[in-house]
Amino acid sequence: MGKTQILDGNVVSEAVKEELKPRIEALKEKGTVPCLATILVGEDPSSATYVKMKGNACERLGIQSKRIHLAEDTTTEQLLKVIEELNKDTAVHGILLQHPVPKQIDERKAFEAIAIEKDVDGVTSWGYGQTALGFGIYPSCTPAAIMQIMNFYGIQAEGKHAVVIGRSPILGKPVSALLLNANATVTTCHSYTKNLPEIVAQADILVAAVGKPEFIKGEWLKEGAVVLDAGYNPGNIGDVEYESCFKKASAITPVPGGVGPVTISMLLKHTVDAAERG
Amino acid sequence: MGKTQILDGNVVSEAVKEELKPRIEALKEKGTVPCLATILVGEDPSSATYVKMKGNACERLGIQSKRIHLAEDTTTEQLLKVIEELNKDTAVHGILLQHPVPKQIDERKAFEAIAIEKDVDGVTSWGYGQTALGFGIYPSCTPAAIMQIMNFYGIQAEGKHAVVIGRSPILGKPVSALLLNANATVTTCHSYTKNLPEIVAQADILVAAVGKPEFIKGEWLKEGAVVLDAGYNPGNIGDVEYESCFKKASAITPVPGGVGPVTISMLLKHTVDAAERG
Q1: From 3.20.20.370, 3.30.450.90, 3.40.50.720, 3.40.50.2000, which CATH number describes the A140-260 domain?
Q2: Which residues of B touch A137 (CB under 8 A)?
Q3: d(CA A92, CA A206)
Q4: Key word Lipoprotein present in the record (chains A, B) (predicted)?
Q5: Do the beta carbons of residue B89 and residue B78 sit within 8 Å?
Q6: What is the pLDDT of residue A1?
Q7: For residue A163, what are the CA distances in angstroms to A172, A228, B251?
Q8: pLDDT tens digits, B211-248
Q9: Catalytic machinery residues of B
Q10: Domain A31-115 - what CATH class?
Q11: Given B132, B161, B193, which is nearest A173 (Cβ)?
């Protein structure tokens, strides 16, 4: 067994930010301040923390953060109105609606209302379709982060068998699509999958996006697999059992400090991209 | 070995058409004649034949067929203008642009120009995204046909391992998405896939959408697999080697008379759906 490489997301994240700094400066010289509008609905403490982290990350880099906080009892119609206004606001380049929203809101309808040119978080069906067909400009940020980590560390997808566990609209499905477009053979697994360990055992690249703490066991892995853990469960615990997976993997993302920080950097990058596109 | 079931597409196609007849009558009683506009660009004989088959199938069922034939040297701009006019024409419920178009045309741009509410052939990225996220109304017709055949013959996807060979925007990708949404574990393979026979050997459901005659061999199959052949190569030859696959499969679509006729029926169904939506 060789040494397992730790895929440090903070290093990748810093590299992305360094690349963005001169682009943000150039935009400001031309009179444009990149601006991300974040919408938080209600008082869910995790959501509040995530939105705050994203807003703060913007501001540290010189991206304007327009923070909108709506009441817990906001209706779908009220939220749609806010999104419509942000769509029209030429000073706003990107719109992020923090997921999940309170239960009375039609989340999909709200996501779909975001103008595609401002969908920097990659939540619309149209953006998903463009990404899957190979010409999307703002893939969902966590899938984009996974690809960024692979690119940064020189991990090739082409010809590899990638196994994705999870099929959510913003994670499992788009990361499957991106890996397929990168010429991996892709198997997408989920709660109905039978013999999951047998399928995981075939993975050259394993993406864990299942949302269950320490669900994936090292004993399931092929020796030398690359493990990308997009899980982020309470207590900073990933979807993979880190100790046992570390022993089998050739490379692995830690939690925290793996996919998470790169996800935020992808959001910043997409916002700068959007500002450059005008 | 049990008897292999032949999944007769003509039977499925007729059942779909029977279900459409009273719906078309009801529309006509209200003064609406469902109308599909077909656009053929250039003189490719196969494309001309396909468009003609589709137009004739419409007319036999009482759907109006508006047939547009553009010259071989049509530009992208000229084609976009035709599509724009059809988008605005309230008498037209569905628009089909026959693929492939001559080389000077930006096919993707032309597909994307079709209004989503008239995209009955399921070629736009937005339509694809909606389908993949589970709320599409007009999936691409061949993938829709494959699901229709499975439903008709009572073949369950849930919990099965489906292997799709091919990843085109109108076949491999959307059929993978539909099977995933039907709770199959889905592996999508393509030209970069290594050890294809080993992966095919895991398939409970195999979809051949590779465009190579008799590419898939019976010896690769798991005993009892369901084989859906979406290939349609010159000389009415499918993507699977029929004789050898028939011996291993529990059910198989013939070529011709399998997926093909149901594909056209799905186009008719989507056109009627669109007319009903107004």
Answers
A1: 3.40.50.720
A2: none
A3: 36
A4: no
A5: no
A6: 55
A7: 10, 10, 28
A8: 999 999 999 999 999 999 999 898 889 999 999 999 99
A9: 54, 98, 121
A10: alpha beta
A11: B132
